[in-house]
Amino acid sequence: MRDALVAAAFHLFLERGYEQTTVDDIVALAGVGRRSFFRYFPSKEDVVFPDHERSLAEVTAFLADSSDDHDPVLRVCDAVRIVLRMYTENPTFSVQRYRLTKKVPGLRAYELSVVWRYERAFADYLRGRLADRPDGTLRADVIAAAVAAAHNNALRSWLRSDGQGEADDALDHALGYVQSAFAGRPGPEDAEKPEEPEDVVVLVSRQGAPLWRVVQEIERALDRGGDRTRPD
């Protein structure tokens, strides 16, 4: 019944347009009553995003099942892959929804509220794990926002390509920046980055020279090192 309502709704949305389609139109095509519709979907907007409640529940359960041995940043990165999988399991539907959402401002606003719920789930988990660290709450919120942004960047690139290509690879690349910044793993642009050479000053002084002269020679050497154009 739930799948039949979603199929009927998107058939009408694509044929007539979202604004021109009513709940009565949807239930008439699906062959059910209005009560059946509202048993599954609180509003017409919810029928456009029928799988997010299940996905959010999976994400929340996955994070709740974490142990102290899990790196919290990497755990959240793994959790956001559950969200991406929801989209990639049905590319045709996901692309249709993306195109529809771009045309309807109300649906874009609804989608932002859905993204916020995922971000809050990430932040709540991270706050619990980072509570004893300096700026734990701030770090949790920043990391949660970064993970959500990385996911959205990879997802939109995949959707704009009509569901072609490897969305998982794009997400791994984007999450590399998050892990580099917060989990101590190298990011895509930091791999095998050479270390900057350090200047070394070697001073040879006569045995028994007064300390003030040694200090003076050190200051002169450092001064010459800071000014490469000054002759010896």
Describe this structure in words.
By secondary structure, this protein is mostly helical. The chain has three domains: 1-45, Orthogonal Bundle (Arc Repressor Mutant, subunit A); 51-182, Tetracycline Repressor, domain 2, CATH 1.10.357; 194-232, no CATH class. Helices cover 69% and strands 0% of the residues. Helix 6 (72-88) runs antiparallel to helix 10. The longest helix has 26 residues, at 105-130. It is elongated and about 105 Å long. The model is unreliable at 185-194 and 226-232 (pLDDT under 50).
What would CATH call the class of the largest domain? Mainly Alpha
Strand runs, count: 0
Q: Helix-strand pattern, N to C?
A: HHHHHHHHHHH
Assess the beta-strand content as a share of residues: under 5%
Instruction: Characterize the main sheet.
Output: none
> What is the gyration radius calculated from CA atoms?
28 Å
Round the mean pLDDT to the nearest integer and report it: 85
Which residue ranges are poorly predicted, with pLDDT under 50 across at least 5 consecutive positions? 185-194, 226-232
- Estimate percent helicity: 55-70%
Overall number of domains: 3
Helix/strand-derived category reads mainly alpha
Number of helices: 11
Separation of the first and last Cα atoms: 88 Å
Dominant shape: elongated
Q: CATH fold name of the largest domain, please? A: Tetracycline Repressor, domain 2
CATH architecture of the largest domain: Orthogonal Bundle
Would you identify the CATH H-level superfamily of the largest domain? Tetracycline Repressor, domain 2
